[in-house]
Structure formats: structure tokens, C-alpha cells
Design brief:
241 residues; mainly beta; 10-stranded antiparallel beta sheet; two-stranded antiparallel sheet; 2 helices
């Protein structure tokens, strides 16, 4: 099952001394940062909340753990971001947190499948369709253990406490992320960039225990909006980065 995130951004127009008019259906070349991460504006849709492309230095910081405090109305979560595992992802997440992109947003999706138990957040629109107006490459995990009952070896264990990026296919990372509150089976197609602490897991357990909000079409859903509405009030890194 894919954990999807529609990523979007506004179109960019470049003007010179001699102005010419391009055909209405001419393709627009996306703007990209020049560093190794290559954060690329996505012209098809606007960002859910105004934010710039992240800094992209010639050498992306790739050592150390950065702590990010995520305060929610259901309790606190302390995230440990691992630069060595996913330097471009950590750089983007810190940029979005510093830009207050995540503040006062709602975690829009809870899954309670037998083999997939995650809370998904990071879309200011609260719909699951919003992003930061840019995308960037995958930094996929290696060496994950096989799911015990998957004879093909394709399904891997995303362990309880894992912090990973949602996406809509290869190299479509944006702002949406998910937190794993019980060991889950996924293909290794989702960038792991950190973990959530013990208190954060208690918060996730509280949200999961509330279940998923029923709808007229599905009175007992296993995938949908948490019944215990979960809002990120503030997300901030602890210390300089």
C-alpha cells in the first residue's frame, strides 16, 4: 500500500531585457537548487503554505543527530533526525520546521491495518493532498529485516518508533511524513530519517487507541482521520543546525 503525498508549487516566470511571450501550452522548466540535494519546485500545484526551497549547500550535513520537539494537542513527541541516514531529508525537514510550515497543522491519516500501523502528518491543508511546493530524491533504507511471513522477501519491517517520509512514487518526497507505532510491513520505498522517543510513542498509542473516525460509508474504518483529532501545535529543532 502506498503512503501518498501530492506535492505542489507555483509556476515561476523568468523575464529578460527582451521580453517574449511563450505559447500558453509551453512547458515550464522547474526551478531547482544547485546543491547535491536538488530540491525541485513542482509547478503543477501550489504549496499548501508559502515556503521557500530549502538551503542546499555544496556539502549537505551528513553527521550527527538533530532533535526536533513536536508538540501536539495529544502530547509531546521528541524526534531524533539522523543526518547520516538521510541528509537531504533531514535538511528539508529542519527547513520546514524553522519556517513554521508544520505549526498548527492536523495529522490527517491513521492506519490500523494488521500489518500497517502509522500516523501520517505534514500537510497544512489537512487533506493528504498538500505539500511544500517542491520535491526531492529518495534516500532509501538498506538492510531492513524481512517481514517474517513474507516468503518473497519484498516486505520489510518498518519497526515501531520509525520516522519516515510519505511519497507518491519514486523521488516525490515533500513535507508529509509518517510515524510507526507498531511494526509494519512495507516495501523499502520510503525514506527513513529518524525515530520517535518513548513519550512520543505513548502519544501515538493514545491516538491509535481512539481509533479512526467513522463515516457514513464506513462505520468501522481501518484507514482515515484519527477519531482523536491530532494537531501539531509547534515543531522546532532543539539547538542550532
Amino acid at each position: 500500500m502506498r503512503l501518498t503525498s501530492a506535492i505542489a508549487c507555483a509556476a515561476v516566470t523568468v523575464a529578460g531585457l527582451l521580453v517574449t511571450t511563450a505559447p500558453a501550452d509551453a512547458a515550464i522548466t522547474p526551478v531547482s537548487t544547485k546543491g547535491p540535494c536538488g530540491y525541485t519546485a513542482t509547478p503543477d500545484e501550489p504549496p499548501a503554505r508559502p515556503v521557500s526551497l530549502p538551503p542546499d549547500p555544496k556539502h549537505t550535513p551528513d553527521k550527527g543527530i538533530v532533535k526536533v520537539l513536536v508538540a501536539t494537542n495529544q502530547g509531546p513527541m521528541l524526534l531524533s533526525l539522523d543526518r547520516a541516514k538521510a541528509p537531504c531529508t533531514v535538511q528539508s525537514f529542519l527547513h520546514l520546521a524553522k519556517s513554521r510550515f508544520y505549526d498548527f497543522t492536523t495529522c490527517h491519516r491513521l492506519t490500523l491495518y494488521t500489518t500497517l500501523k502509522v500516523l501520517q502528518c505534514g500537510d497544512p491543508s489537512g487533506t493528504g493532498e498538500g505539500g511544500p511546493g517542491y520535491s526531492y530524491k529518495d534516500e532509501l533504507p538498506t538492510g531492513l529485516p524481512n517481514w517474517p511471513t513474507d516468503p518473497t522477501g519484498a516486505g520489510k519491517v518498518y519497526a515501531r518508533g520509525t520516522l519516515a517520509m510519505a511519497n507518491a512514487g519514486p523521488d516525490t518526497n515533500g513535507s508529509q511524513f509518517f510515524l510507526v507505532f507498531a511494526d509494519s510491513r512495507l516495501r523499502p520505498d520510503y525514506t527513513i530519517f529518524g525515530s520517535v522517543d518513548r513519550l512520543g510513542l505513548a502519544t501515538l498509542d493514545r491516538v491509535a487507541a481512539g481509533g479512526i473516525a467513522p463515516t457514513p460509508d464506513d462505520p468501522a474504518p481501518v484507514d482515515g482521520a484519527p477519531a482523536r483529532k491530532t494537531d501539531i501545535l509547534v515543531a522546532r529543532s532543539l539547538g542550532t543546525w
